[in-house]
Amino acid sequence: MKSVTHALAGERDQPRRYARRVLSTYRTEIAIAIAIGIVELAVGALVPAALSGGNIANVMQACAPLAIMSFGVLLVIITGGIDLSVGSVFSLTGMVTGLAMAHGYGAIASSLVGLSVGVLIGAINGALVTFVGLAPFVVTLSTYAIAGSLAFIVTNGNSLPISNPDYWLLDAGTLVPGVPNYLLWCLLLLVAIELSLRKVVAGRWLYAVGSSSSSARVIGIPVNRVRVAAYLLSGLLASFAGIVSVSYVSNAEATAGSSLMLQAIAAVVIGGASLFGGTGSAIGALLGSLMITVIQNGANLIGVNSFWQGAVTGIVILIAVLVDRMTKARR
């Protein structure tokens, strides 16, 4: 009888234990979500239009490319690396996609050509960091400069209008009724990456490599392949973010991603990832991207000079890194 009673009590306690485990695992992400709500309410108190459905939809739309890029940067940072090339990959992808369309290629072929930019640069970054042994900062800063220059070279610095009248559907179409595609892509990537990081062996390898690559190698984890895969996926997602953005604005600009590299890194760090590797989540990266977008949107609505936005992003990164450092020291 007692065993039955204990079993029933255990079943009743199971939801509580699960809730406690979720709260413990995602405490940083929950804090960020609360902070986003507070910021949005504060801006709404000053400018009521901030809480309108139209403005919230605009925030989601503006957040989507940054969130997609941040997912890729997250994978690299978890392994203990850094990818500074994503902003230029974003720009170059848009220019190459627009150029392909201008030469008569269809939407799918042009998009695949654009995505190949990210795959190529990601593979170069991964190979130089992993097999040549160069510092990630040096490698990705170099490819950032090269890709940034190529974005101007391929079209002599001219912007490229998107000639395909249906290309906007990639961003604002609805494969799932009621869910715009830009939101659908973010949700699909969020679920796929978060589940992979938490439940799939290959995802756990990323954390192991970031925590201690030498220990990971000793226990049989293919460290080299994990690192190359992280950089390759970072480049691919930066390119995907680029074509989603081009689909939205129907125009490709050589400077479109110039500020996104800093924002993507900021989003990942704000979301709880450590620049020293070994920690981070896709949920945190998404919320970090949303936090940055909400701050920028609020600053625009309030009337803060746009020149200050870069300073605000830098301050937010510094605060997030300091909090991470203090948390590690306390542990």
* Order of SSEs: HHHHHHEHHHHHEHHH
Rg (CA only): 21 Å
Structural class: mainly alpha
Q: In percent terms, what proportion of residues is strand?
A: under 5%
User: Which word captures the global form?
Assistant: globular
End-to-end Cα distance, whole Å, is 44 Å
Unreliable segments of 5+ consecutive residues: none
Number of DSSP E strands: 2
Strand line-up in the sheet with most strands: 1-2
The mean pLDDT is: 88
- In quaternary terms, these chains amount to single chain
Summed up, the helix count is 14
Helix fraction, binned, reads over 70%
Give the biggest beta sheet: 2 strands, antiparallel
Please, could you describe this protein's structure?
This protein has helices at residues 2-25, 27-46, 53-78, 86-102, 107-132, 136-153, 169-172, 181-199, 201-211, 213-218, 223-249, 260-270, 282-302, 309-330, and strands at 160-161, 251-252. The longest helix has 27 residues, at 223-249. The chain is mainly α and 331 residues long. The termini are far apart. 76% of the residues lie in helices and 1% in strands. The protein is globular. It has 14 helices and 2 strands; from the N terminus they run H-H-H-H-H-H-E-H-H-H-H-H-E-H-H-H.
